[in-house]
Amino acid sequence: MPDRIPVLLVDDDPDLRAVTASYLEREVDRIAVETAAEPADGLDVLSERDVECVVSDYEMPERDGLKFLDEVRERRPDLPFILYTGRGSEEVASEAISAGVTDYLQKRGGTERYERLANRIVEAVEKRRAEREAEQAVEQFRAVANGASDAILSVDTDGVIRFANPAVESVFGYDPAELEGEPLTRLIPERRRTEHNEAVERYLATGERGIDWSNVRFNALHRDGHEVPVSLSYGEFVADGERQFVGVVRDDSERDRHRAFIEHASDVVAVLSQDWRLRYLSPSCERVTGYTPSDLLGDRALDYVHPEDRAAVEALFSDIDEADGPPSVEYRFRTADGDYRWLESVGSDELETDGIEGYVVTTRDVSERKERERTLSQLREWTRELNYTRTTDEAADLAVEAVDDLIDAGLSGIHLLSADGESLQPAALGDSVPMMFEEQPSYDRGAPPGSRAALAWDAFRNEESVVIDELSSSGRLDESSPAESLVLRPIGDHGLFVVSSPNPHEFTDTDVLVAEILSGHLEAALDRIERESRVERLHGATRTLVRAESREAIADRAVEAATDVLEFSIVSVRLYDEAAGGLVPVAISDTAAEMLPERPTFTPDGGSLNWAAFESGETRKFDDIQTTDAFDADTALRSVLVVPIGEYGAISIGETEPGVFDGVDEYLAGILATAAETAFQAEARTRRLAERTAELERQNDRLEEFAGVVSHDLRNPLEVARGRTELALEECDSEHLAAVGRAHDRMAALIDDLLTLAREGDPVTDAEPVDLGQVVGSCWRTVDTRDATLRAEAEEMIVADKGRLRQLLENLIRNAVEHGGDDVTVTVGSLPDGFYVADNGLGIDPDRREDAFDAGYSTTQSGTGFGLRIVEQVADAHGWSVRAVESDAGGARFEVTGVESTD
């Protein structure tokens, strides 16, 4: 219960302690007794419990009740203390009263003594509570008075000033101590003193007020003798049984200024107690919240704060640190109509003195700002989505949806410029437009003044927003319109953003700002979409460049791409001709041919814009060549863009209006020039390849002719010489004839290898799966391997020309046998992407391994030097690689890689 009285009972007799506690709680149900057997325990209870009265026995073993009283007074000087003792003597009573007990009762008598004790407890506690409240009131008065900016005085019935706050110095020029004890008339001009004294005497005698105490205006007397215009409000109170008056005095000029600030300011000024109770509210409270100040005074301010925001508000005001500046917090406040409105409060701890706490809070309505922040946050989301649109229709639809969501403008629409530039056609319309307009609104160029179309075109041409709050009374239209509020915002060169509503004065400054921001992002999105579309179409057009078969065809297609895709009208391509000494025209658009005079060649010394761009390798842009000394300055040509095509030439682009080309045009023209340069490079490579192919074909023809000569004209005489040598050997035995026979054999081997070299260079075109192990065995039987040993470890199927593969393997086996000796072991094994042929012979000097595949290289007198060259040639024809390394046994090892396997 709220007026519960907690009591501590200390008595060493347990039975008497229990009986006393029981009777006290039964006599007065407000009393709640906590017991202790000795003073030490009682002190522990006092340190842990909220006790408002102590009842103590006198005679106790450790210390008597008076010593206990001394210890209690050290801790709680004002705590009521009743000595309840069985020892009743005047000496004890006198000592107890001297020691400062609140009351003294004897335990003798019947049960009525408990009723008497309970009554004394209640009286003592309530008296102490009243004293504490009075002290608190006085302290609060002093705290408020000392912190007030107005002068506050208290005066007794004799007209003597009993209290003056520090502010009296700013009003009257006196220090407070100089006024306390002095007559009030010191502050009243002499001519008014008699009148004042008579009025006071009349009130004290009759109680009748001759004036309104709440607002008295007069001139007071300053310390230096001049009169001060002040306003005064009186009050009367009783202190210690004595009537006194209190007056609040304010300098009139300050009063007017503060009243204007408090009562007419848009912000709400409030005073909150420590428990959040509203103690004062300025009149602006009603405008902001819908409540009059009297509706809220005494209520807890937190009860009106949105539940989700209360923690933030409490946290802010729980620990105010003025050093960090006045704290502020934003929160939702429940208004008189039940809705929530966003408020921002700035608080300061102004009333904390002697344990009395409170806050002065200034509050403003920030609902519009919060709504604006919410709108702008949503706007960021919508504009982010605009960045991902891929088509014009998608971007327009999204923009209309966004403006309807952000501004609630259902009559809005996006109107884009038609292809012929003669009308603004609807690309996207709000949901309400079909219901309000009989047909989709479109706006034709050249419409009569006063029409909706003329108003739209004026806004589009002027490139500025048109904002009309009440269209019907604006004088801008001669025809009817469903719209009253209207915002027209150009979308760059693309068209017009129409934001409208059937209600007048519908759009705020924030709405207009949203429409402008949204239209700006829509313009950027449409620019991007148009640029991406042009780039995509340009890429499609440039792909045809590389398929052109000649420089002239490439130039023609570059002009076509510039005119058809990039929509430039005056285009020419000039290419560098060394014989002509400059840039010669190769392709030109029809408009350029009609407009510009024929100029065959632009030379380095001719002052040509084309040559300057080509020579520097940098794009040149001119907003108006009529301000230059260019060749075409005397024609209708104005804007010029010249883009170099690498080392090949330049593309020249022009228009008849000045300042036409922007960064996008320059970027796209650069793409076209790069594609043209790539096409010219490809054409040059193709031309060089064709020339080389023709030369190779001529060389092959000569080689084939040589092979025929070798095959017929050398082999036949050689065979005759070999036959004659054999016949001579039958007739005579000469060592010279044997040497001639060996020479003939070597010449035959050389002829065979040369023929192989001549005919094995063509690429393999009829490869098929071949059993590598089978081919190795066949080659081993064909080659003269003498006493050599074969270790065939390769058995996979590979893709190869079988005949050429036999040629490669036979040469590698023959090479191993010839260089390894009669008892050499030849190993054919597998690699992850091929195979190898290795031996355990002498190997190849590491410094000579790179030369092993050169024609004519041999380490034996009987070798032709072409065997390994044929191996490399066969490998190249298959697209394989071959290299010579050392085998595991220290001999030679030839690795063939890049071989396709069918396993």
UniProtKB/TrEMBL annotation:
CDD domains: HisKA, PAS, REC. Its EC number is 2.7.13.3. This is histidine kinase. The keyword Nuclease does not apply. Residues 327-378 form the PAC domain. Residues 6-122 form the Response regulatory domain. It catalyses: ATP + protein L-histidine = ADP + protein N-phospho-L-histidine. One of its GO terms (molecular function) is protein histidine kinase activity. SUPFAM superfamilies: ATPase domain of HSP90 chaperone/DNA topoisomerase II/histidine kinase (SSF55874), CheY-like (SSF52172), GAF domain-like (SSF55781), Homodimeric domain of signal transducing histidine kinase (SSF47384), PYP-like sensor domain (PAS domain) (SSF55785). Keywords: Kinase, Phosphoprotein, Transferase, Two-component regulatory system. Residues 137-207, 254-324 form the PAS domain. It comes from the Archaea. Residues 709-897 form the Histidine kinase domain. It is an enzyme of class 2 (transferase). GO terms for biological process: phosphorelay signal transduction system.
